[in-house]
């Protein structure tokens, strides 16, 4: 079962574990994209999933190394949705649960820390940020599978 | 996939042709290119994103930083982007209002510098 999940349908199809470092973000993104392509899901969903994974990883990197612990990423494709969960051992949970800024100020914004979570919230259908016991957080994201309008994922 | 950054000069403009993916790993390369151009006196930059396969917040942040740098020198930074997957992140963040977005490099070069 996925760490933040609550049922038998939450058995992840893909589990990745990697250091929260920039050089691993592309690998994580492409691995999850490969899972989406296996199911011939719509191209726009594939792009949304890739962006959600990248932003989750960017958040984990910004949150710090988490005492050397790796990031864990889980992904599942269900008939009507894609479920992603990032277990981030870093220090970002307080900032994460604060919620998005009401307005993005390009003069003030420190982009390496602030934009990822607002993008995730604007991108996915459900997002849940749960503090983990001790330290770190779970970032769970759900994207609905909608009828294909632009062709299946092939990019 | 990596990020390739090619710089061309067209009139008074520096055109950055990007190919590949822009994320937290590759964005520093783009940032350094923009910083070098602005520090070298460029006042007009056009960033061609038509061959960009992926853009996330880190890449967007680099573009915003570049915009701020060049505006401080009364210059402009325009974006060429028509792919939905690229435009979407500008829309989500509201930064489509901060940038001059164009359908082609030629269109971008038609704009006066003060239009950005």
Write the layout of secondary structure elements.
The complex is a heterodimer of chains A (155) and B (116).
Chain A: E1 14-18, H1 25-38, H2 43-62, E2 71-78, E3 81-88, H3 93-97, H4 111-114, H5 116-123, E4 126-131, E5 137-144
Antiparallel strand pairs in A: 1-2, 2-3, 3-5, 4-5
Chain B: E1 3-10, E2 13-22, H1 27-39, E3 44-55, H2 57-71, E4 76-80, H3 84-93, E5 100-102, H4 105-110
Parallel strand pairs in B: 2-3, 3-4, 4-5
Antiparallel strand pairs in B: 1-2
Report on this model:
The complex is a heterodimer of chains A (155) and B (116). Chain A has 155 residues and is of the alpha+beta class. Helices cover 33% and strands 23% of the residues of chain A. Chain A has 5 helices and 5 strands. Chain A has a 5-stranded antiparallel sheet. In chain A, strand 4 and strand 5 form a beta hairpin. Chain A is globular, with a radius of gyration of 15 Å. The two termini of chain A are 30 Å apart. In chain A, 40% of the residues are buried. The mean pLDDT of chain A is 81. Chain B has a 5-stranded mixed sheet. Chain B is an alpha/beta fold and 116 residues long. Helices cover 38% and strands 33% of the residues of chain B. The longest helix of chain B is centred in the middle third of the chain and has 15 residues. The chains are: A alpha+beta (155), B alpha/beta (116). At the A-B interface, helix 1, helix 2 and helix 5 of A face helix 2 and helix 3 of B.
Largest sheet of chain B: 5 strands, mixed
Rg of chain A from C-alpha positions? 15 Å
In terms of quaternary structure, the protein is heterodimer
Uncertain segments of chain A of ≥5 residues (pLDDT<50)?
none
Strand and helix order of chain B:
EEHEHEHEH
Element-level helix/strand string of chain A: EHHEEHHHEE
Radius of gyration of chain B: 13 Å
How much helix, percentage-wise, in residues of chain A?
25-40%
